[in-house]
Amino acid sequence: MRTLLLSKADEHYLEKCAREHRFSYGIIIGHQADLTKTFVVHLARNNEEDVDLEDLTEVGLTISSQALASQWLSASKMCPGSFDVIGIFVSSVDDQSAEIKTAKKIFSEVFDILLKNNNSLGIYTTDLAQSDYAFLSYSLANKQVVCKSYTYGNGGTFSNMEFKFVDRPFEWIQIECSYDLEDILPIVETVRRINIEDQLKNVILAFRKTILVSEVFLQNEFVEDTIDLQTYIKKSKSKEEELKAAAGNSATTSDSDVSDALRLMGSQGFVGGSEIIRASILLPVKCQLAKPTDIKVREFNGCLRMSGIISTRIYCSARNSIADVKRYLRDDVLRSLTTRIQVYCDGLTDPYVTNEATFISEPPRRVFFSLPSEGPSTSTAVAVQFSEYLFRGEAPTVVVAQAKQILDVELDPEAITMDAEGQPDDINFANVLASGDQEDDIRSTTSSMPNPELSRSLYMLGIAVALLVLMTSVALHYILTDK
């Protein structure tokens, strides 16, 4: 039987929701540590619709399935690959005995909405989507907590689920990776007007197939999937200590030799008592994945090139296996790519472009923010970070508003990490345009990025400088002529 582990801060949050709003509901964001333990990472109240006090007796009518589904989907895009929305919670000042009867209906309606939209339950993962979810009900009247496990399918079923409030804060191990995306996909459609959204969806499907067969290295070395993360860290630290001891006993070993050896074995990732592990993802050559009969020479009308760096940060428990870590890293890259493509497509004013045009677009970049900590903080504690996506010109206040609406947290704009992913240089776009055979036949279709005034100002500044040079030349010409 699975056990849901909550922190004392979660208990205080449930009590706060009941006291301040009398009735609240929202989502549970969690992490699967192993087959028996699930950590609750964050509880987020849904504040889209405040419940009318007169309707508290009609509990089933006070929960909006549409609001929950919207919050569920938005939060999934903000979670790192190791976290997921794992269920729903309800908090009230009164007894919640009626909640169990209506919860099954709420779950079913939420899942129907999500599946109807775009199969959101499985689009972000490299394996099958989870089928078991948690339902948590808290009553302020008697301080009672009810925890159930919900299984989707065949009308949905509930089963008993253990829960426990833990005094000590959860300890997380941070794994980072900068994935270099560089790929070209053919556009095989023969129609003149090509749908951009369809092409980008093909990108997601193609990338998902490729990353499934990728290999993940931790600290520049291959690690067996069967061991857990705690064992791996102990072995890595033991290797580092042995290497330092051997270097200290050898008179012929220089400091540079020691640092080079440590760099090669990847031990430099453990800094300041907290574990930050550097990872890298390597994709196989595409022709190696194809059978000889699958390799064909084909003609196509155009191609779609993707280029950039995806910054990845996931947080794992020491209980997680190395196989889990690798899967979470793949999921995070896929989730980040999918999310920024969806955000980009949502902002398009016209999803079509002619196949004669050079279509240049800049999707949003990923920014990170830490969840506020209510417990005692230590210098070695790893702060869990979620992410949001900003277009060029958008301010950090956009992230603040999104975090408040979706995760119910207050953020300081100055604490948001904005430089994890750099912005592309405008010169790269100019080089693409200049590489065409005939300038008149090349048209650049820009995305619906906000605040284009910056680019316009640069153009106007260039025109003004040119006019100034022209006027100066004319003036000098007349002066010299008069003399």
TrEMBL record:
<keyword id="KW-0472">Membrane</keyword>
<comment type="similarity">
    <text>Belongs to the ODR-4 family.</text>
</comment>
<keyword id="KW-1133">Transmembrane helix</keyword>
<dbReference type="GO" id="GO:0016020">
    <property type="term" value="C:membrane"/>
</dbReference>
<keyword id="KW-0812">Transmembrane</keyword>
<dbReference type="Pfam" id="PF14778">
    <property type="entry name" value="ODR4-like"/>
</dbReference>
<feature type="transmembrane region" description="Helical">
    <location>
        <begin position="458"/>
        <end position="480"/>
    </location>
</feature>
<protein>
    <submittedName>
        <fullName>GL25193</fullName>
    </submittedName>
</protein>
<dbReference type="InterPro" id="IPR029454">
    <property type="entry name" value="ODR-4-like"/>
</dbReference>
<dbReference type="GO" id="GO:0008104">
    <property type="term" value="P:intracellular protein localization"/>
</dbReference>
<dbReference type="GO" id="GO:0012505">
    <property type="term" value="C:endomembrane system"/>
</dbReference>
